Amino acid sequence: MVSTVVTPFFEADEAVFCFLPMDSNLKDPTNLQELKSMSKELPSYIHKPFTKGGLMLDLGCGDASYRLNFEHLGFNYVGLDYSSEQATLLGDAHALPFKDESFELVFSRSVFEHLQYPFVAVDEAYRVLKPNCRFLGSVAFLEPFHGRSFYHPTHFGLFNYFKQAGFSIEYISPNPKWDVLTAQAAMSLFPKLPRSISNASVFPLKLTHKAYWKLGNLFYPSQCNELTRLLWTTGSYEFVVRKN
C-alpha cells in the first residue's frame, strides 16, 4: 500500500493576520461614502484611478447601484453581469471578455457564491487586473440559500481562492453589519418585512448570544474570543486583495 503525504497549501499561522476585523485605510483614504450593505471600512480601500479615466470593473454589477460612487472617484465604470439590463455589457465571470491587465480596480459584491467555478472566476479577475491594483468586495458565508447560490466559503476557503490565483491578501474579514441572525431573519425567516422589523425579531437572541460568548471568554479565553465569534457567525466576508 502506497502512502500519500498531502502538503497543505498554507499553514494556518500564515493566514491569521488577514482575518482580523477590517481597519479603515488611513494611508490612502478616498473618503468615499459608505456603500450599501457593506462595512464603513471597506470603501476606504477603494483607491482613486492611477491614470485619468482609468477603467474599473464591477463584476456581477446587478442594477449597477454603485456606478455613481465609482464615477465620482474618476473611474470609467464597466459593469458586467450575466443578465442585468443595467449592465454595461453582458458576460460570464468565468471567461471575462477583456484583455489582460485592463482594469485599475475590480469590485464584486455578493457574486462569487453564485458562480459554479469560483476558482476560475478568481483567476479571471487576477488576469484582467493591472499590477499593484486591488480586487475587493464581499462573499456570502452564513446567509441562507438564495438565487442559486453554489458555495458559501469559509474564511479559509476564500484565502485559498485568492492565494491560488496569486493575490496578496490584505483582509478577509467578517462583516460586522451582517451577522448570521440578521441575515437569516432578513432573507429567510421574515423575507419582505421591513429590515427594522426583521432586525427587532432577532435582537434579544443577539444580546443573549453575545453575553454567552463573553461568559465563555472568562473560562476559555483562547476558544471564546471575539475574533472567533465574528468569524463563526458572520453572514458574509469582505475582502481586500492585491495583484503585485
How would you summarize the topology of this molecule?
Elements: H1 12-16, E1 55-59, H2 67-73, E2 76-81, E3 89-90, E4 103-109, H3 118-128, E5 129-140, H4 155-165, E6 168-174, H5 180-189, H6 195-219, H7 226-233, E7 236-243
Parallel strand pairs: 1-2, 1-4, 2-3, 4-5
Antiparallel strand pairs: 5-7, 6-7
Helix pairs in contact: 3-4, 5-6
Short description:
The chain is built from 7 helices and 7 strands, in the order αβαβββαβαβαααβ. It is α/β, with parallel strands linked by helices and 244 residues long.
Describe, in plain words, how this protein is organized in 3D.
This protein is α/β, with parallel strands linked by helices. The chain has two domains: 12-179 and 234-243, Vaccinia Virus protein VP39 (Rossmann fold, 3-Layer(aba) Sandwich); 181-219, no CATH class. The chain is 32% helix and 19% strand. The protein has seven helices and seven strands, in the order H-E-H-E-E-E-H-E-H-E-H-H-H-E. A seven-stranded mixed β-sheet has the order 3-2-1-4-5-7-6. Strand 4, helix 3 and strand 5 (129-140) form a beta-alpha-beta unit. Helix 5 packs antiparallel against helix 6 (195-219). The longest helix is centred in the last third of the chain and has 25 residues, at 195-219. The N and C termini lie far apart (43 Å). Residues 1-9 have low confidence and may be disordered.
Strand content: 15-25%
Describe the largest sheet. Answer: 7 strands, mixed
Strand order of the largest sheet: 3-2-1-4-5-7-6
Q: Helix share of residues? A: 25-40%
Q: Tell me what the CATH architecture of the largest domain is.
A: 3-Layer(aba) Sandwich
User: In one word, what is the shape?
Assistant: globular
β-strand number = 7
Q: Distance between termini?
A: 43 Å
Average pLDDT confidence is 90
Under CATH, the homologous superfamily of the largest domain reads Vaccinia Virus protein VP39
